[in-house]
Amino acid sequence: MKAQSRVDLAELPLLGGALCLDLVNTVDPRHQPPILEYLHSYDALLDWAVYAGALTPPQAQRLADLGGRQPAKAARVHARAIRLREALYQLFAPTTRTQHPKAPLAVLNTELQHAMTAATLEPAPDGYHLAWARGDQLDRMLWPVVRSAAELLSSPALERVGECHGQGCGWLFVDTSKAGRRRWCRMAICGNRAKARRHSQRARTSPSLTAPASGTHARARSSA
Question: Residues 3-31: what's their mean pLDDT?
Answer without folding.
Answer: 86
